[in-house]
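Hey, quick one: can you model this chain's 3D structure?
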Amino acid sequence: MTVEQLYTGCLAEAAYYIESNGEAAIIDPLRETQPYVERAKEDNAKIKYIFETHFHADFVSGHVDLAQKSGATIVYGPGADPAYEVHEAVDGETFQVGALTIKVLHTPGHTQESTSYLLLDEHGTPKYLFSGDTLFIGDVGRPDLAVKSDLSQEDLAGMLFDSLRQKIMTLPDEVVVYPGHGAGSACGKNMSKETFDTLGHQKEVNYALRADMTKEEFITEVTTGIMPPPQYFAKNAMMNKQGYQSFDDILERGSVALTPDLLESLVEHEGALVLDVRKPGEYAAGHIPKSIFIGLDGSFAPWVGALITDLKQPIVLVAPDGREEEAVTRLSRVGYDHTLGYLEGGIEAWKAAGKELDTVESIPATAFAEGVKTGDRKVIDVRKPSEYISEHVIGAENVPLDFINQKMGELDHEAPYYVHCAGGYRSMITISILKARGLHNLIDVQGGFKAIKETDVSVSDYVCPSTL
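Sure thing. Here's the predicted structure for all 468 residues.
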């Protein structure tokens, strides 16, 4: 028996590979399918089933492509009813993978079709629970992401309470919980950095599994403090329900090398967005005017999904040499399937062609500390509200990057601003978006708030949320 957790840090997502006696199953695969095909080949195994725990909102699953390539059967839980051929399982149904048995546990709450899968070994002993977004380590799934549901989040939270107590908490304490996500995912609010745990330990430490908790208390706790979901969540969920383009076709189309002139033509005639995925300092030193920066070396896909509102937006890339295919792949994971190519030779080729370059003024925190004392430039803090509330530069205005598209109109287009985040990644994203919309008097603070705290700039320890 082989059970492997295949964890992707950028999405804080876990897929699973299971193999026994030459048969394999994949749970919640990512968009690119070849790694799963190759993994099964290593074991000389045939992929028999692809189990989906629910219609994922934060990424596009690879189940449709993988089924076409492998001949495997896609399995969903009760009530899924997608637009393509699947086996819609009933609660309690079992599937054989070699000597192993996988049992369906319908656990609605995160979504109505949410299903957990219990793996029993060759002796019929429960060993692993693949809980999807029903139960996380330290948390449970948010109840507000169901696709076109006529139920309220309170209704779904009540279902989740029943699912946890009737289907999951009754399992042996020794069962290992393998969730769909870890810390950093927007599918929950209090996840642990650990990516698996025993059910018994979770009963002791997970607030949502307290034995003395009433359903009303559970509903209140689970629905309190949920940030609005990123705009791409509902769109990804619908792609997972309705089907999508072949990833291989998307990768081929997006991996086209573009000359500077051809890139310019795609921007002018196709409305393509120039997405620069290099490092923040490289973008600051020189970039294509009106290009948007979202670096690969950060939470790339979630920020693309939060900030680029049209999944059908044509995109052309400025990428580090050798990472172009990675960028296309990671865009497709969150449903951005219309990459048209990348700038061959990168920004150096752009300069060699005599094309215009723009820059960002970026200063160390020590220079910010001196400049901010004059009071002639406002300070924008683009961290999340919770980060700002915890501690911030006195007088700084909180304009979270998450909501920059909505907050744009509140900024003075003529005023000069310092812009900072926690470490320098989000501030450069913000500046790129603001510059593309006509705000140019912006200075980035290198190292963000972490570096600012090492200076003598006055910071506030706490501000009441009601004053924001």
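One thing worth noting: The chain has three domains: 2-235, 245-352, 361-467.
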